[in-house]
UniProtKB/TrEMBL annotation:
Keywords: Membrane, Transmembrane, Transmembrane helix, Transport. This is Hexose transporter 1. It is a multi-pass membrane protein. Pfam families: Sugar_tr. It comes from Phytophthora rubi.
Amino acid sequence: MAVLMTVAFYVISFDVMLGPLVWVMTADIFPDSIRASASSLCIGVNWLCNLIVGVAYPLKLVSETSGKSAEEILSEYN
């Protein structure tokens, strides 16, 4: 339960503090003539990077546990 509360606290903190910063920064750093296109490109790259991390993390760092006993799984993580 403590792990879930810690993750929830992290997500809420990020969403309140640093999460919206990307949207504000991309709206302010570009001149008016290219603001819409540049912001769209930055947000698209942000989503693409999030997708890559979200797909690559389980494939690379989470081991397969189907067909293994609890002892085998624990020995892999210890």
